[in-house]
Write a structure and sequence with these properties.
The protein has 117 residues and is mainly β. Helix content is 11%, strand content 36%. The chain has one domain (6-30, 41-116): Regulatory factor, effector binding domain (Multidrug-efflux Transporter 1 Regulator Bmrr, Chain A, Alpha-Beta Barrel). The radius of gyration is 16 Å and the shape is globular.
């Protein structure tokens, strides 16, 4: 194992937590060819990140800030959302001290997409 665990949110329906499509991941060190189909390699892409400190109940502020920054700077949201957990319920019982890195894949908006920024 190598690094902090994280979650990838492929789709989310507001208000219906049972309908989320989520993967929970743990980075590993790979030193030889991998034949295990459960191990997934991620394609390189551009991400923007921010750090959220506090309870998960208001993590949407971090996502809103990233969304606003991307659209203000000519980028479109491209892929799944990631949350990497640095301090969570495994480290502290105080949810106001949680530290979560929030990331969203982006791409540069082309001219035909710029109408939607």
């Amino acid at each position: 194992m190598n690094g902090k665990h994280f979650a990838i949110f492929h789709s989310m329906k507001d208000g219906d937590y049972s309908r989320y499509d989520i993967e929970v991941c743990q980075p590993i060190i790979v030193e030889e060819e991998v034949k295990d189909t459960r191990i997934k390699f991620f394609e390189e892409t551009n991400y923007i990140y921010t750090i959220h400190i506090g309870n998960y109940d208001n993590i949407n502020y971090a996502y809103n800030a990233l969304n606003d920054w991307a659209h203000s700077n000519g980028y479109l949201l491209e892929g799944p959302f990631k949350e990497k957990y640095y301090t969570d319920e495994f480290i502290t019982l105080d949810s106001d001290k949680y530290v979560t890195e929030v990331g969203i894949a982006i791409k540069i908006a082309n001219l035909k997409d710029s109408c939607c920024l």
